[in-house]
Amino acid sequence: MKILITGSTGLVGTALTQNLQRAGHTVCRLIRPGASSQTIGNSQAFDVNWNPATGELGGAAVGADAVVNLAGASIADGRWTRQRKQLLRSSRVDTTRALVQALAKMSVRPGVLVSASATGIYGNRGDETLTEASQPGTDFLSEITKEWESEALKAEALGIRLVRARFGVILAKHGGALPQMLRPFQFGIGGKIGTGKQWLSWITLDDTVAILRSALENANITGPLNVVSPRPVTNAQFAKALAATLHRPAIFPAPAFALRLALGEMADALLLSSQRAVPAQLQKLNHQFLHPDLANALCAVLSP
After folding, report:
1. Mind listing the pLDDT tens digit for each residue in 81-135?
2. Percent of the chain, pLDDT > 90?
3. Which one of 65, 104, 182, 297 has the largest count of C-beta atoms within 10 Å of its C-beta?
């Protein structure tokens, strides 16, 4: 297949690009004006000019069979000022709108669009088990994610199969949230966050890539897709498992009030919010996870 990818230099985009290239697919990185080319693995991914501001898509995109939209600024890089919130929204909503508009102009359109989303769409839901059929929440991240998915949904009117990949917390040794989670434990001062009762929906990077491959290749996968392990854990359980993997204690809780003082609104949305999401659609399709269990997943991710 010929596959276009936005956000190809991020954690998921880099891993997916390498995986697809090894499988013999042609990967085209959609590159914004002024962005530098990056070596992927042992080869150079094929670059296609892409200007979200104007919607212009380079002619090299012609003939694409599939598109993976992973664009979006990191939600954890910096306090949520008004300007930061605008960036979080525009990098997702506006970019997805421009991408779908560009696909609409193609005489021959790709057969499938896999567009990133997040379990943050559900908001803070306590102990409720969340499937793809669950209603969205009403907080800042929920509202952004609803808009994000709304723009992607316009691809369906173009005859393109759409998969909205709702990512949980992606565990990887070299990027994402895990390296930040590791630091206090490495210094022996790790522990649960707040009450520790909030649920964490997690997934390894290897499983994330495998699920995205399935979404591209399996025509039965469509609509919202929870990209999470079938075994979510509470924050306290996660802290205990991480401490055991690192052979460190987990006895120093981080108080909620201190987190709110340090991080503001972001603390409630990212650290204290509870989302017990399960991969109902993947389970219905009998998808086989590489790392369904947290303890084994941490050992695999953190092994030398």
Report:
1. 889 899 999 999 999 999 999 999 999 999 999 999 999 999 999 999 999 999 9
2. 70
3. 297
Question: In the structure encoding, which two tokens stand for residue 254, read together?
Answer: 């981080």
Count Cβ atoms within 10 A of the Cβ of residue 108 and give its class: 0-12 exposed, 13-18 middle, 19 or more buried.
exposed
As a whole number of angstroms, the distance between CA 92 and CA 71 comes to 6
Integer Cα distance of 230 and 130 in angstroms = 11
Q: Using CA atoms, how far apart are residues 161 and 153, in angstroms rounded to an integer? A: 10
Q: Give the model's pLDDT for residue 34.
A: 67
- Which amino acid is present at 94? D
Domains with residue ranges and CATH for the chain? 2-170+202-228+276-290 (3.40.50.720)
Greater pLDDT, 35 or 166: 166
102 and 154 in contact (C-beta within 8 Å)? no
Model pLDDT for residues 3-12, shown as the tens digit of each residue: 999 999 899 9
Query: Between vectors from CA 288 to CA 172 and to CA 123, what angle results, nearest 5°?
Result: 60
- Is the model's pLDDT at 37 over the cut of 60? no
pLDDT at 252: 83
Q: What is the pTM of this model?
A: 0.93
| Ranges assigned E (strand) in the chain | 2-6, 26-31, 39-40, 43-44, 46-51, 56-57, 66-69, 112-118, 129-130, 161-167, 169-172, 175-176, 199-200, 202-204, 223-227, 233-234, 276-277
- Strand order of the sheet with strand 112-118? 56-57, 46-51, 26-31, 2-6, 66-69, 112-118, 161-167, 223-227
One-letter amino acid at 14 equals: T
Rounded Cα–Cα distance for residues 277 and 134 (Å): 9
The mean pLDDT value for 195-205 works out to 95
- Amino acid symbol at 249: P
